[in-house]
Amino acid sequence: PSRPSVDSDTDLSEVPSDILSAPIVREGYLIKQGQKIKNWKRRWFTLSSTALTYREEESTAAKGIIYMSEVILARRSAKYPDKKFLFEVITKKRTYYMMASSQDEMTSWTDALANILVPNLQNINHHSDASSLSSS
Predict the structure, then answer these.
(1) pLDDT tens digits for 53-100?
(2) Helices (H), the chain
(3) From CA 64, how far away is CA 130, in angstroms rounded?
(4) Is residue 110 within a helix (H) or strand (E), and if so which, with residue range?
(5) For FRET with 37, which of 5, 50, 56, 99 sits at 20 to 30 Å CA-CA?
(6) Per-residue pLDDT at 10 exceeds 80
(7) pTM for this one?
(8) Does the pLDDT at position 107 exceed 50?
(9) Nearest CA to 100 among 86, 112, 111?
(10) Rounded to the nearest 5°, which phi and psi values hold at 18?
(11) What is the DSSP letter of 115?
(12) What's the rounded Cα separation, in Å, for the pair 30 and 28?
């Protein structure tokens, strides 16, 4: 069996095609923190209404996917004070840290993510445990 990429905890061959074919809302390079080895790597991110995928270069195969249905919050992060334009994408399983190259770029990513999350949260609130959404 093939070993999953260190970058991702998702088997991309199992991703439903409708998720990958959703229209792109925003794309571009961000610096992402690795999951196991906490180093920072430049990745090409593609955001749609269903998922945030990332790859090493714009033209290479996707290395990881974050399903928007699993994202609880996307916001500016102060976890690493030396990282200027840092934001975090919080899912039920883990928190992803990404760094933009400017304040405007960071804001446009967090705004784009928030615009997708707001309708998602309204959809799930009436049949999920709302207390899990409160910030701890």
Answers:
(1) 999 999 888 889 999 999 999 999 999 999 999 999 999 899 999 999
(2) 17-20, 103-125
(3) 28
(4) helix 103-125
(5) 50
(6) no
(7) 0.78
(8) yes
(9) 86
(10) -65, -25
(11) H
(12) 7
In the block, tokens 């610096």 appear at 31
Which of these ranges, 12-16, 76-80, 107-111, 120-124, has the smallest mean pLDDT?
Answer: 120-124
- The residue assigned the tokens 């999951």 is 35
Beta 51-55 vs 86-91: how paired, if at all?
A: unpaired
Element holding 96 (H helix, E strand): strand 95-99
Task: Return d(Cα 100, Cα 59) in angstroms, integer.
Answer: 20
Give whole-number Cα distances, 88 to 11, 21, 39, 94, 116, in Å: 22, 25, 15, 10, 15
Other C-beta atoms closer than 10 Å to the C-beta of 57 total 10
| Sign of the CA dihedral with 21 first, then 27, 29, and 34 last | negative
Residue 98, phi then psi, degrees to nearest 5: -130, 150
Residue 18 exposed, middle or buried by CB count within 10 Å (0-12, 13-18, 19+): exposed
Nearest Cα residue to 127 out of 76, 69, 77: 69
